[in-house]
Amino acid sequence: MGRIIIKKGDITREDAEVIVNAANTGLRGGGGVDGAIHRAAGPMVMEECKKIGGCKTGEAVMTAAGNLKANKIIHTPGPVWHGGESGEADLLRNCYKNSFELAKKNSFKTIAFPAISTGVYGYPVREAAEIAVTEGVKYTRFFNEIRYVCFSDGDFEVYNSVMEKLKKKT
Ligand code: AR6
Known about the structure:
Layout: E1 3-8, E2 18-23, H1 32-41, H2 43-52, E3 61-64, E4 72-77, H3 88-105, E5 110-113, H4 125-139, E6 145-150, H5 153-169
Parallel strand pairs: 1-6, 2-4, 2-5, 5-6
Antiparallel strand pairs: 3-4
The structure holds ligand AR6.
Residues 10-12, 22-24, 30-34, 36, 78, 114-121, 149, 151-152, 155 line the site of ligand AR6.
């Protein structure tokens, strides 16, 4: 049974075997964590993204990790928040599920996630954290460590409180 770790930090510095990128459907790169990952990884990763061509919301594709410590990057476009009635929760759940499945298929044992969709795409952090952590719990037996890397103190607190609540329930 693996561990779930919630930490504050910059995901580009994580030494997990695979890190997940909150991408867009064109895999074109952009701001936020996507921009940071491409800057740190180097141009080779963008070359590979261009070859892949794109990825649907909620699906996941994998590339090399260039100059990062990680071995691979999984790119998954999260949903844009439109108020919660447009299937956002299912799509975000798919981002986590498909990323876990892809990492599992490639026998990776440590994986690190940013808070997908909660930046530019506007998904409320608590709701997003509930989905992230609930999916993680389902996959602990396939991984040694699942890390949620929060970029702000506020997100870190929210993830911790969601985790505590979940522990009380189980
Ligand atoms: N390490 C960890 N988390 C980070 C980092 C980092 N280095 N930098 C930002 N975050 P966002 P989205 C956090 O906007 O909402 C891009 O332009 C950030 O504080 O990066 O899924 C893509 O190309 C927030 O908590 O992703 C897409 O077009 C979280 O990462 C679009 O933005 C996600 O914020 C995707 O939007």
